[in-house]
Amino acid sequence: xxxxxPAVAGSFYPEETGELRRAIRSxxxxxxxxxxxxxxxxxxxxxxxxVCPHAGYVYxxxxxxxxxxWLSSLRRPELVVIVGPNHYGVGSGISTFRxxxxxxxxxxxxxxxxxxRKIVELTGLVDYDPESHRREHSIEVQLPFLQDVYHEFKxxxxxxxxxxIETARELGRGLSTLLxxxxxxxxxxxxxTHYEPAPAAREKDMALLDTVRRLDTASFYSxxxxxxxxxxxxxxxxxxxxxxxxxxxxxxxxxKYASSGDTTGDNDAxxxxxxxxxx
Length: 279
Fold this sequence. Notes:
Oligomer: single chain
CATH class of the domain at 47-191 and 232-250: Alpha Beta
Radius of gyration: 17 Å
Mean pLDDT: 97
Number of strands: 12
Number of helices: 9
CATH superfamily of the domain at 47-191 and 232-250: LigB-like
Low-confidence stretches: none
CATH architecture of the domain at 47-191 and 232-250: 3-Layer(aba) Sandwich
């Protein structure tokens, strides 16, 4: 059985179990965080979808905590699907795992082999390619937050080197079919503008997030191109927008936006971090 080992434990987040749990919990209580610890008091059913950042926990963890507090309102997920960008461009254009486990300092999580097989069949786009995931952090960094809330669950990791609108629409359709009628979590893992002054980054990112809240994929890609917005996981965001719309979502809600400058104090060249939910 394939076991995918952590690629960024000890750099993006702590590799020691106790320290990692403390880092997660401090993300919720950080001044940029939601100020509450999960679980949420609400109990929801169905598919909960969100956009969540994937930088190091000291930078984006408090923003990510807004998404995870909201996701914790789901009673218990049958499946967690995480769509993230392939930063390294290694391997297949769209890839998942056929079977196996993903290891984190908090334990191993099994890949849902049946769901993986189904999304390959439904789309004709997704390949089985563990190599695409070996070094990639965008999916990995979401897992400890999820484990802190739910402990045990099955995952479907999907890594995108292809992030065009046609891919997003087709993959979104496939995911909506896969998840219809299930209690599931669907996450788009993405940061927004990279390495621009904080005011410019915020202006660009707010324009892009307006299209995300409206679930307007065509406008999303138009703004992305016109404003030259360097969101690394734009295809993941668009995929989750499409799936959410087809599953009945009418709009997205912005829980939090911040940038690396809010943590470091250096606002000359920041990275933007979003927390958006679709319900």
